[in-house]
Amino acid sequence: MQSLDALTRQAVALANGAAATAEVSRQMQICNACRYCETFCAVFPAMTRRLEFGAGDAHYLANLCHNCGACLHACQYAPPHEFAVNVPRAMAQVRQETYTEYAWPRAFGALYRRNGVTVALATAAGLALFLVLALAMRGTLLHEPLAGNFYAVFPHSLMAWMFGAAFGWAVLALAIGGVRFWRGQSPGPVTPAAAGEATRHALALTYLDGGHGDGCNESDDRFTLLRRRFHHLTFYGFMLCFASTCVATLYHYALGLPAPYALTSLPVVLGTVGGLGLLAGPAGLLWLNMRRHPLQGDPRQRPMDRAFIVLLFATSLTGLALLALRDTGVMALLLAVHLGTVMALFLTLPYGKFAHAVYRVAALLKWAIERRQPNRLQLGAD
Amino acid sequence: MHDVLVIGGGNAALCAALTAREAGARVLLLEASPREWRGGNSQHTRNLRCMHDAPQDVLVDAYPEEEFWQDLLKVTGGNTDERLARLVIRASSTCRDWMRRHGVRFQPSLAGTLHLSRTNAFFMGGGKALVNAYYRSAENLGVDIRYDSPVDRLEIQDGRFVAACVGRERIEARACVLAAGGFESNREWLREAWGQNERGEWPADNFIIRGTRFNQGVLLKHMTAQGADIIGDPTQAHCVAIDARAPLYDGGIVTRVDAVSLGVMVNRDAVRFYDEGEDFWPKRYAIWGRLVALQPGQIGYCIIDSKAVGRFMPPVFPGVKAGTLPELARKLELDEATFMRTLNDYNAACRVGSFDHTVLDDCHTEGLTPPKTHWARPIDQAPFYGYALRPGVTFTYLGLKTDARARVHFGGEPSDNLFVAGEMMAGNVLGRGYTAGVGMSIGTAFGRIAGTQAARAALKEDAHAIA
Ligand SMILES: Cc1cc2nc3c(=O)[nH]c(=O)nc-3n(C[C@H](O)[C@H](O)[C@H](O)COP(=O)(O)OP(=O)(O)OC[C@H]3O[C@@H](n4cnc5c(N)ncnc54)[C@H](O)[C@@H]3O)c2cc1C
Ligand code: SF4
Ligand code: SF4
């Protein structure tokens, strides 16, 4: 079973062009002889523990890379040099390979390459339309103000069931991907110290600070903390929205307090603050993404990156609009659109840019473990 | 018209441009290369040597002035100007804050592979990151920068700079700083300097240039012709043994092969020619370029076995690999019989004690010429690896004679508005030999002196003109 798994994975890797991992391996060979970028991020110290870079190493290092761009601008071998070293691009290409290869169900891996703004928006629009139609058929699309009573439009249990299932699916698919990735690596036992360190780095986005605290590179060799900040806004905004949903669920089931909630209630405050973060963050990330240096990252993945960013933005925008207009006659319409967007977000979560979070945390954890183990190489002797 | 014209685009030029601008001068910098290749050899550097009396930010322990000076005295064999050398040494202790202000970042001291965090401060991201930071800062401060602008001659009147010419364009300025590097990229000149050997070969034809292709020495030649005082010998250059597959230019740091002290070196005739275990590799690193340059065909082969793998910095190109020594000889196209005799003699002569690559250990050869005095272990564990090595020129030492104010001299007389910095005058301090990181220390110290002096010269003239 195990070997069959490995075989399938290899076949998939070949089909996807093992060229990307070979390229990472080639570039890491150059970096390993150079090491000037040693203190930018974790990729380089992790690299120095190896002499060769197989597919597993490439996947690991690629997911440790935060695509900050520092090592591109600092590289004496960057194009037009004949060595043509562009670590952030090579790593980005292998990351996509990781997502594709470890995806569950495997056949869905191909989605990573077709995922674009269009697909995401189409999904959202399709779902929204579906809901709108369903309501229109029931004649409840336009209605008298319902004082924010969503459940008059969609019964609570239906929503809980639908979104619970979609979210569960996303979590399951991502978890399986993460486990598949982890199985290909053998970093040693997870210690609390290592887990704590990995969590800290993930939550603080340590490696977007450039190693010197000035930040990372976007459109040129200048450093900026903007990406880190926008990323934080996005992530913590998302988490607040998620917390809002959790609290609301708790209110509903544990306290028997069904929505709508007052503007000053905990779920609404959490959702509003989170929603604002989830507007500003993705907007900023999209802006940066459009201006990124042409050599940085993998331009072919920009549609995927942007699709996810746009979906997040749309989720927040529709959510806030719903909140603002919940006492009006368009509430049901807005609710349908918002729910459609959220549904699209959940369904595409495991097959889009979000996957990077799972693999990156896994790679950070591996590095935290590995770093604590003795280095078998004795290069320092000379 | 600009006050100060800076010719060159590496570390020394940027330091000069920044200080001149800080002093209030309008500055124009002319870089020969296109933007993508800006920064000369400085883009390939890693660190600068710094004096310090106590642990200081990224530097551990202490590296006092006297020790730095003694190190310099040793490597140059006295071929140095003590006054200028001490000036560089002292400046190296205070320049880091200035560098930081212009965006240069240093690595925290690492327990890395180089035991240099006592003497050297490492640039985060290396020299290209440093060069980028300086260019950004220069742009922010309003220094005018022009790429693709190789200066081919200067107009000099009575020892005073008047104008510089880029092709047909003539650029005037009140003062000028020359910081256009050495002549190591000029293969014709290297050929001429190294001449023809007793075998009828032109050794320099087989040299590889480790750094930029833009240091053609045009201005060095031109200044010599204009009667500027010259220091140093054109055959003197920092020359290390690097992988023969390295690109002709800009191979940089990665093409070095650090395995020499772990194995044996043979020449094209498959015989050994020098003690590979003489001293630690960083100390001996720089002698192997010249040693290989003296061998037939200017090529040498570093031979190791698998015991050495994982004990030296990974080389950029994989070694030629073989299951047996005769097979390795065939793959390297060396005479098999001689190769086997060399290796068998070496293996038989090894007196293995306790191998320790971190100290001058007691593993040595007996009754072998040349001997291997440390780290001598038989080469007997398959697979075997061979690396072909060629001389790699880092930079040349010939330069313009100068003084503590970085002035160019003509017939012993200093110019009052023409200054020089960096590799173009490094020979005043480093007439011979090399110690890691001192090139950047010289360029930073003299770049800043030249910038200050040029601004002063230009602004004084300005004041005269107004009065
Ligand atoms: C691979 C390598 C590694 C090194 N590592 C270190 C290290 O770690 N630490 C250290 O201290 N030193 C190191 N050195 C040495 C160091 O590079 C030099 O000492 C230092 O860069 C000299 O600086 P510079 O500004 O004088 O010359 P450069 O940096 O070479 O700059 C010369 C500039 O002049 C320009 N130029 C040339 N001719 C003209 C012209 N006619 N008109 C206009 N512009 C012109 C060139 O394009 C270039 O930009 C290394 C050198 C190499 C090759
Ligand atoms: S990215 Fe370039 S400069 Fe950085 S370590 Fe790799 S080869 Fe060296
Ligand atoms: S792009 Fe940034 S995070 Fe990725 S390897 Fe380079 S320095 Fe590290």
Automatic annotation (TrEMBL), chain A:
Coiled coil location: none
Annotated Gene3D superfamilies: Transmembrane di-heme cytochromes, Chain C (1.20.950.20)
InterPro entries documented for this protein? Citrate_utilization_prot_B, NarG-like_sf
- Look up the domain of life of the source: Bacteria
What organism does this protein naturally occur in?
Ramlibacter tataouinensis (strain ATCC BAA-407 / DSM 14655 / LMG 21543 / TTB310)
Q: Which UniProt keywords apply?
A: Membrane, Transmembrane, Transmembrane helix
Q: What is this protein called?
A: Candidate citrate utilization protein B
TM stretches of this protein: 116-138, 158-179, 233-254, 266-288, 308-325, 331-351
